[in-house]
Amino acid sequence: MDMLEVINTLNYGLLAELEVGHHLYWQLGNLKVHGQVFLTSWFVIALLVIVSVLATRNVQRVPSGMQNLMEYALEFIRDLAKNQIGEKEYRPWVPFIGTLFLFIFVSNWSGALVPWKLIELPAGELAAPTSDINTTVALALLSSLAYFYAGLSKRGLGYFAKYVEPTPILLPINILEDFTKPLSLSFRLFGNILADELVVAVFVLLVPLFIPLPVMILGLFTSAIQALIFATLAAAYIGEAMEGHGGEHHE
After folding, report:
1. Among 35, 64, 165, 176, which residue's beta carbon has the most beta carbons within 10 A?
2. Domain boundaries, the chain
3. Which residue ranges does UniProt annotate as crossing the membrane (predicted)?
């Protein structure tokens, strides 16, 4: 009996079979979308909105509870953006960097804490939004658009001079770098979160009580690190685009 047969044998009641690459599709006119990504993304967005409303509905001069948590998160994001983009330029980018970090952080933690893949659907499987390559590529492309916009808005057409610096011979390599940045961002996040979800789901199926807990705790740590890496690199790329070639910001 191979591993797939063992997993199927241990499949009880409402627990779905552990499958990879099977999706719940919604047909919207001529457009086919991954329904499970929308479902879990809406869950993450709703959770963030609820926490934000609870934290700001009765703002106190001396913060406590949820307000204290959100102010700590805001201060952390401000420091991250300031360190990567620079003291003078970071403020307009705090909402973008903060949105990236919080959405990825909560999405990753949902994958580490909730065994999405074991919830039965008519077709396909649930998963954390960031364990789907479409989500991570979209976030990476948004980051690329952001640093192009930052460079052009700060330096105008002079931004493109970076492609021939320090010598025009490096033009192909500098152009290739713009393609490798989103690829690196998207595949790093996708691979780590998908692997963590699969490990947790397999352990929950095989030994559903206490053994998965250390793996889930480790997953929480690595998920937080992945969110921090993504947001830090996105901010660094934006700072680098505004600073120009040879600036203080590096990957």
Report:
1. 35
2. 23-243
3. 37-56, 93-113, 133-152, 189-211, 217-238
**Cα-based torsion angle of the residue sequence 140, 143, 148, 149 in order, rounded to the nearest 10 degrees:** 140
**Count of other CB atoms within 10 angstroms of residue 127:** 28
* 2-26 confidence digits (pLDDT tens): 444 444 444 444 344 445 556 677 7
- Separation of alpha carbons 120 and 16, rounded Å: 4
Model confidence pLDDT, tens digit, residues 71-123? 899 999 999 999 999 888 899 999 999 999 999 999 998 877 776 666 766 76
Whole-number Å distance between alpha carbons of 51 and 45: 10
Q: Is the pTM for the entire model greater than 0.90? A: no
Identify the CA nearest to 251 among candidates 243, 242, 235: 235
More confident residue, 249 or 171: 171
Q: Which residues are CB-neighbours of 200 under 8 A, at least 6 positions away? A: 111, 112, 115, 212, 215, 216, 219
Cis omega (within 30 of 0) on the bond before 166?
Answer: yes
d(CA 140, CA 129): 14
Tokens at 56, concatenated: 């700001």
Mean pLDDT of the chain: 80
